[in-house]
Amino acid sequence: MHVGAALLRPGYPFSSWPWRALAYLATTVPVAGVLSAGMLIVGAPLIAAVNAVRQQGRPISLPLALFLTVGALTMVALAPLVSVAVCAVERWRLGIVDARPLPRPPWRGVWARYTTAAAWREVAYTVWLGSVVPVAYWIFALITLLDLMLVASPWTAGHADGVVVWWTTIDTPRQAVPYAILGGLLAPLLWYGVGALAAAQGAMARWLLDQPVDGAALREVTRSRARLVDAYESERRRIERDVHDGAQPRLTSLALQLSLARLDVPEESPAAKPLAVAHEQAKGLMVMLRQIVHGIRPQSLTDLGLAGAVRELANEATIPVTVHADVERPLPELIETTAYFVVSESLGNVARHARATRAQVRLVAEPGRLVVEVSDDGRGGADPALGSGLTGLADRVAAAGGRLLLASPPGGPTLVRVELPCRP
């Protein structure tokens, strides 16, 4: 939670967040003040020299030029080192208005303070804190002072020759009453202004002080995940082929031999009962093995394609399921398999949890992607945090390079939408 999100909540003015924002701004003043004073040592003479050149045309004197040059070089040389302490304090202070952790980068030596992008991002934040932040605070303080003047105008108008409020002069307390009312109405906006100013400063701190994502490392992680998925799919197909072509025919032959042996053994024989038990176990093992092969890659997906296999799932569902399929071009095997299991798992969740009376499956092959939608008219309230089914499904979709979107308000309906990349 952070002050930016708290600003959008109805109870913000009565929560602790405005006070936390005020504490954050108050503790910023000494830090920004010291930085601003240090920058003015060089900045003020530089501005004065530039104005003299522009207005009077006089060249900058040699001592002043030397002072400005040495001062600027000194500031540039010291900024990466000074920013270490400043940003360490700022990371700690950010916790006042932002509960999200902001890790501190490890110390990599003095040379790294001048050669790494992260160090110069800290320098940029330090400069911003000593230059832009004081100006923003002065503007906000001026607005606050003007509002206080409006509120206090009925009491000050009677004890002075005239009180100037914006564009008019107030001579009597009665004339000041409307302005006091306006100031009272604007006061709550200042309370929000405190939070907005703290949120803006905190967002800048997080943007400049957070560690940037390594794009090259992220691309390598994506490529390695794709390689792992491809290797997994290849191994999965090999296991399916070995089970289907090797173990399953042998088990079928064993069950057939046991069936023939039962015909040759009299029922009163001591071997009849163990033989019957062995025959039933062999048939049960055949069913289990068929289910295992079906779980690796359903045979209906190979024989009928994605649309046909999904219609077969719909026919086996315990509630009426309507299928709308617009998939004409062939799809990659990984995408087909992922889409099939999305529909299978979603319909299974509908049957187990949704208390729905009907469901609908939609398959659309759009340019560059396959969209799978499963909706129902059940009670809704599906939450990935309450079970591993939706989380596992989202992980499976992510492994294929897609994304899963869930809409399930309490009372329903529920919609599961999956978008899978599908290059032509």
Number of strands: 7
Give the count of structural domains: 3
Principal-axes shape call: elongated
Largest pleated sheet: 5 strands, mixed
InterPro entries: HATPase_C_sf, HATPase_dom, Put_sensor_dom, Sensor_HK_TwoCompSys, Sig_transdc_His_kin_sub3_dim/P
Domain Histidine kinase/HSP90-like ATPase: 334-424
Protein name: histidine kinase
Keywords: ATP-binding, Kinase, Membrane, Nucleotide-binding, Phosphoprotein, Transferase, Transmembrane, Transmembrane helix, Two-component regulatory system
Which features would summarize this protein structure in a list?
424 residues; alpha+beta; Heat Shock Protein 90; 67% helix
Outline of the structure:
InterPro entries: HATPase_C_sf, HATPase_dom, Put_sensor_dom, Sensor_HK_TwoCompSys, Sig_transdc_His_kin_sub3_dim/P. 67% of the residues lie in helices and 10% in strands.
